[in-house]
């Protein structure tokens, strides 16, 4: 027991506690030494250089990695002058200023790059991460850093930059795609060529890069072939669609992209814009094709008269092969000495005077001994220095010129006849228009009177007879308008075979004495035509044939697809191309030359006064309808040998549209209608018809008044019925003014003329516009109004 009052147990407890504390401290010291050894080992064995230096630049610590970077041992490196680590003293000062700027700007850490000088005098790129060292009071006392030699990395970056600059500055399109064809990478040339941004190209669906499915499949097949066959490269030329809608041709070399294990992961494409080259190739091919396919002979000769070049027509014209023609001397090609003398005199004069060209005509012997008249134009050929080295000759066979001149005289006579008939047609169209307006008044009042007349009333039958006469008058004016080439009312794709079959059945029911035979082409092309007028053409031809066979006979009807060449259409007054040919042939009395010349004149008829009388409009209207459909008609006939009519309609290759005929009933309404017509009697009768149908009526007597009335009541007027022909502001101009105020305005064009000219042009614009021809009955007007209002 101690005298300090502590028991033995207490002393033992204290000693135990002290021992535990000592062991803990000893463990901490051992851990500290172990950690220090670990950090020292780590720092000394890493390749990066670890260092500390004071504010003067003196090294106060470094690991083994730093001297290795500079090529020194640790002892040698620590003894170096601070400037020896740099390229030179001046550059060292620049580097020191980088560190000093951290100190002055109070930047705690920073990554610096500069160059160092190794022991072997090599200059290396050096990168270091630097931090400021502070003492316990916060004062900056130096710098601590970890640095590494980045020379190889910088060289790689410079190499990459060189490749990148090359890649981005070439004009070739470079791109990579995944196996699905989506673009994953491209250069700037790709952006420039196609006009898309790089982001847009990455998002673009591969089908959207091509103008059509065929081009897309071409490139896809090239990709598939290189993938399936493992080809090193595949070349393809295809058309690509740019952002601005232009199409460019690219010649591309495609190769596979493989991963490290050799598996295909995509495609690499290097392409070149060859649009201009392809254009030049096409132009060259066009020129070559033109040169080899024209009928004119083209040849070149040297100064000795030897042929150095010729096209296909040159040797074909004279019956030689290409090789035979080139082996001939120009002196051997002429029939007589006079022709030879003329040519050589002309060529010598051309050489001497350097005139632009000389034209001459000579008779040339062909290989088979025949003679052809060749009209030629000769010009000089010069080399790059401008020296004459030969002659170029373009020749044309004019043997048939006299015959052609005779043909031209005949065509001039036909033209004179056509102009005369056109003048008569213009007159006929004007007469028909005025007559239709008169018929409109009669028809309108008749329709109104019939509404209030009981069918049992004696006047009802008379009024219906008036309607019948009006209808006959309208048919007569319709034929006049057809002759005037204005008879195309409603043009749609039709099959002439259907019209032939329908018309012949109708005609055959009443003309039992006539035998009709048909030979209709099964694959007949479609034509754009007015079905009703086509029926009128065929019925008029059938009636004409019937009149030519008073004792009965046969009619042959045939349809064919034909392609008229340029040489075939000179006498038909139509352009070359595909046509549908309709032939109607009879076994009648035929006609003489004088009758044939006047056959299509209006009011000309061979029928005598008596039981059977003709208006003279049947064949005239056929002629007008055919011409109105841009077709052609001719007739072949001799006295006593029947007649054959050949009609040609342009083929359209559209699909036939089948439509049901609407039920013909009178429809009523309550809307407000503006009626514009310059003839008071027409305004009065049509206005009465409109009011009888239940509509509110506004009228105008001119185009100007129609526009004023519409503008004053624009929110109230539901429909405008506009006459086309008015003095002052025409119907067309009035419609334009109304549609400028209201583009959705509903308008019905009304005219005594047929649907042609301005009326057709207005309808072709589209919108809420329709057409009705005078004269019309009340039921027709009511249906047309409801169609316009309900559309």
Mean pLDDT: 80
C-alpha termini separation: 127 Å
- Strands ordered across the widest β-sheet: 2-1-5-4-3
Q: Bin the helical content.
A: 40-55%
The biggest sheet, with number of strands, parallel, antiparallel or mixed sense and barrel status, is: 5 strands, antiparallel
What is the global morphology? elongated
Q: Please report the number of helical segments.
A: 23
- The percentage of residues in β strands lies in 15-25%
Look at the helices and sheets and give the structural class: alpha+beta
Query: Compute the gyration radius: what is it?
Result: 50 Å
What report would you give on this structure?
The chain is of the alpha+beta class. Helices cover 44% and strands 25% of the residues. The strands form 6 sheets. Strands 2-1-5-4-3 form a 5-stranded antiparallel sheet, with helices on both faces. Helix 13 (401-451) runs antiparallel to helix 14, helix 15 crosses helix 16 and helix 16 (531-547) packs antiparallel against helix 18. The chain is elongated.
Could you provide a short overview of the structure?
The chain is α+β, with helices and mostly antiparallel strands and 791 residues long. The chain is 44% helix and 25% strand.
């Amino acid at each position: 027991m101690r005298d300090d009052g502590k028991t033995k147990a207490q002393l033992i407890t204290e000693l135990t506690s002290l021992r535990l504390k000592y062991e803990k401290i000893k463990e901490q010291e051992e851990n500290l030494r172990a950690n220090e050894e670990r950090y020292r080992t780590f720092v000394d064995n890493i390749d990066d250089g670890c260092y500390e230096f004071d504010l003067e630049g003196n090294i106060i610590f470094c690991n083994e990695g730093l001297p290795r970077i500079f090529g020194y041992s640790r002892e040698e490196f620590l003894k170096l002058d601070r400037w020896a680590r740099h390229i030179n003293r001046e550059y060292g000062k620049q580097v020191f200023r980088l560190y000093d700027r951290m100190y002055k700007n109070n930047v705690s850490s920073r990554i610096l790059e500069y160059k160092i000088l190794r022991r072997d005098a090599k200059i290396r790129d050096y990168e270091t991460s630097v931090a400021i060292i502070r003492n316990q009071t916060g004062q900056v006392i130096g710098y601590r850093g970890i640095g590494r030699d980045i020379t190889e990395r910088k060289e790689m970056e410079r190499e990459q930059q060189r490749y990148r600059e090359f890649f981005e500055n070439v004009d070739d399109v470079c791109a990579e795609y995944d196996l699905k064809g989506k673009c994953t990478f491209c250069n700037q040339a790709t952006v420039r060529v196609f006009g898309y941004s790089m982001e847009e190209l990455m998002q673009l669906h591969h089908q959207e890069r091509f103008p059509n499915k065929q081009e897309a499949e071409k490139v896809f097949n090239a990709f598939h072939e290189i993938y399936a066959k493992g080809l090193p490269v595949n070349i393809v030329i295809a058309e690509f669609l740019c952002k601005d809608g232009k199409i460019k041709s690219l010649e591309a070399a495609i190769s596979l992209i493989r991963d490290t294990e050799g598996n295909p992961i995509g495609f690499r494409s290097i392409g070149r814009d060859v649009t201009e080259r392809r254009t030049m190739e096409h132009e060259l091919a066009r020129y070559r094709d033109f040169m080899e396919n024209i009928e004119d002979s083209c040849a070149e000769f040297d100064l000795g008269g030897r042929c150095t070049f010729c096209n296909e027509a040159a040797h074909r014209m004279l019956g030689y092969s290409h090789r035979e023609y080139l082996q001939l001397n120009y002196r051997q090609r002429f029939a007589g000495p006079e022709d030879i003398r003329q040519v050589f005199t002309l060529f010598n004069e051309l050489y001497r005077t350097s005139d632009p060209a000389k034209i001459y005509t000579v008779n040339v012997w062909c290989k088979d001994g025949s003679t052809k008249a060749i009209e030629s134009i000769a010009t000089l050929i010069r080399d790059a220095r401008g020296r004459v080295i030969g002659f170029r000759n373009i020749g044309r066979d004019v043997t048939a010129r006299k015959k052609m001149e005779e043909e031209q005289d005949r065509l001039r006579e036909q033209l004179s006849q056509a102009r005369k008939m056109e003048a008569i047609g213009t007159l006929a169209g004007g007469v028909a228009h005025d007559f239709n307006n008169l018929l409109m008044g009669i028809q309108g009042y008749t329709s109104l009177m019939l509404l209030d007349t009981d069918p049992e009333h004696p006047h009802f039958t008379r009024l219906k007879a008036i309607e019948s006469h009006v209808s006959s008058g309208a048919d007569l004016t319709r034929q006049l308008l057809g002759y005037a080439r204005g008879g195309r009312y409603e043009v749609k794709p039709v099959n002439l075979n259907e019209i032939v079959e329908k018309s012949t059945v109708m005609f055959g029911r009443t003309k039992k004495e006539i035998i009709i035979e048909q030979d209709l082409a099964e694959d007949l092309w479609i034509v754009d035509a007015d079905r009703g007028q086509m029926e009128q053409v065929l019925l008029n031809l059938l009636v004409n044939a019937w009149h030519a066979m008073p004792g009965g006979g046969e009619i042959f009807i045939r349809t064919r697809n034909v392609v008229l060449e340029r040489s075939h259409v000179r006498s038909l007054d139509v352009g070359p191309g595909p046509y549908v040919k309709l032939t109607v042939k009879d076994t009648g009395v035929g006609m003489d030359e004088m009758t044939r010349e006047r056959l299509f004149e209006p009011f000309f008829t061979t029928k005598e006064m008596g039981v059977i009388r003709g208006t003279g409009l049947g064949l005239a209207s056929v002629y007008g309808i055919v011409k109105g459909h841009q077709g052609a008609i001719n007739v072949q006939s001799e006295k006593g040998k029947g007649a054959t009519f050949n009609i040609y309609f342009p083929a359209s290759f559209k699909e036939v549209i089948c439509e049901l005929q609407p039920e013909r009933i009178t429809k009523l309404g309550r809307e407000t209608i503006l009626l514009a017509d310059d003839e008071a009697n027409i305004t009065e009768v049509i206005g009465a018809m409109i009011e009888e149908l239940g509509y509110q009526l506004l009228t105008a007597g001119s185009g100007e008044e129609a526009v004023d009335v519409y503008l004053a009541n624009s929110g109230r007027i539901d429909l405008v019925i506009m006459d086309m022909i008015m003095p002052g502001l025409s119907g067309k101009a009035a419609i334009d003014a109304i549609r400028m105020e209201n583009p959705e305005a509903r308008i019905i064009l009304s005219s005594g003329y047929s649907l042609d000219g301005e009326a057709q042009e207005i309808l072709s614009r589209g919108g809420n516009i329709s057409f009705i021809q005078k004269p019309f009955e009340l039921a027709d007007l009511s249906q047309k109004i409801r169609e316009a209002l309900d559309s």
